[in-house]
Amino acid sequence: MVMKTNMHLHYDDEADYLEIRVGKPKEGYFNEVGNDLFERIDEKTGKVIGLAIFNFKKRTKKDIDFSLPFKVEMES
Question: How far is the C-alpha of 50 from the C-alpha of 34, rounded, in Å?
């Protein structure tokens, strides 16, 4: 089964923190996958439901471009 869902982006300029969430908010926890990089895991399913990046601006030297609209497909 393929499910289409929305993506939510949140950036906190003061904290220099970007969070990307797929779908509606769910209970979960963060798992560190690299230096200031975290994946958000759904507590019930164990699947990745988002990403968090600390020191986001420090990591980027230029603008980030991507095409809209876009879709995220997740299998259940």
Answer: 15
